[in-house]
Amino acid sequence: MRKSIITLLTDFGTKEHYVASVKGVILSINPHCTLIDITHQVSPQDIKEGAFTLANAYSFFPKGTIHLSVVDPGVGGSRRAILVVTQDYFFVGPDNGLFTLAAPREHVRQVVALTNKKFFLQKVCTTFHGRDLFAPVAAHLSLGVKPEAFGNELDSWVELDFGKPRTKERELTGEILHIDVFGNLISNINEDEFFRFVKDHPFIIKVGERTIHGLKRGYWGGKVNEPIALFGSGGFLEISVREGNAQKVLGIKRGDPIQISTKLQAPNPK
Predict the structure, then answer these.
(1) CA pair distance 198, 211, nearest whole angstrom
(2) Residue 83 and residue 76: Cα distance in Å, rounded?
């Protein structure tokens, strides 16, 4: 029997029966696969949060891993169900932008509409595609069923707009992309973009009403309850408060701007 890894990312929580039902379907089809929970605590119906979380976790799994992700406010509606096949991974879930940040980082080989009911449960509930459609597809895929068997190939798929940092003169403006469980404010400015912009110039970082000077190497680098800037584990510029919560201290929400301003170095006296 072929052994595979299937990860699970949902907004189902763990209080109800939903996650257990999904796992039960998968294991009934392939009892030898390994199931790994990325998280089931994505905020309800928050596709962007799910996309960010998936993008920061998927690549640490072995090649061939199947990432089953369900954050699906449009379940049972007109949105499509898809399988995204990349060079190293498979992504199974709703076509609502959930794979916007993860899949394009890979070489996308094909996107398949999941329409072949042969691979669904016999009865598909319009409110629980995670159990009745996506779980059995992921399980059959883990047994070696070819992607094209699940349906027709698509030319396009839904991608969400997460915004791009903008440069104007000596200012780089991004936005807060994600706020984690610790209250860290994670921006959409990555390390390469940041240093390409600041070069060797001194800079300040402004978020909300606060101005931050310089970067710290880690959370330990700041004073208690003092906002600091650093690059987190995902490679993005983030604002943190040592032993505190940056979101609460600064009153920032997702989508708020973050701005880096540079100053030209004063010429050396001759």
Answers:
(1) 16
(2) 17
CATH code (residue 56): 3.40.50.10790
Residue type, 162: F
- Residue 179's domain spans which residues? 166-262
- Using 70 as the pLDDT threshold, list the residues of the chain that sit under it: 1-2, 264-270
- Write the CATH number for 185: 2.40.30.90
Provide the 3-class DSSP secondary structure of residue 255. coil
| Separation CA 110–CA 152 (nearest Å) | 10
Which residue has tokens 């159990």? 131
H helix runs in 191-251, sequence order? 191-198, 246-250
Strand-pairing partners, residue 136, are none
How many folded domains does the chain comprise? 2
Contacts 24+ apart (CB under 8 A), 213-217: none
Tokens coding 250: 């600064």
Tokens of 171: 């200012």
Residue 15 in any domain: the answer is yes
What order do you get walking across the sheet with 66-70 strand by strand?
34-39, 5-10, 66-70, 90-94, 81-86, 108-113
Instruction: Tell me what the pLDDT averaged over the chain comes to.
Output: 94
Q: SS3 for 125?
A: coil
- Which amino acid appears at position 21 of this protein? S
35/146 same-domain check: yes
Structural tokens at position 227: 């906002």
| Radius of gyration of the chain from its Cα atoms, rounded to whole angstroms | 22
The amino acid sitting at 179 is I
Q: Which two tokens stand for residue 265?
A: 């170095």
Query: For the segment 50-90, what is each residue's pLDDT rounded down to a tens digit?
Result: 999 999 999 999 999 999 999 999 999 999 999 999 999 99
| DSSP classification of residue 195 | H
Q: Do 141 and 232 reside in the same domain of the chain?
A: no
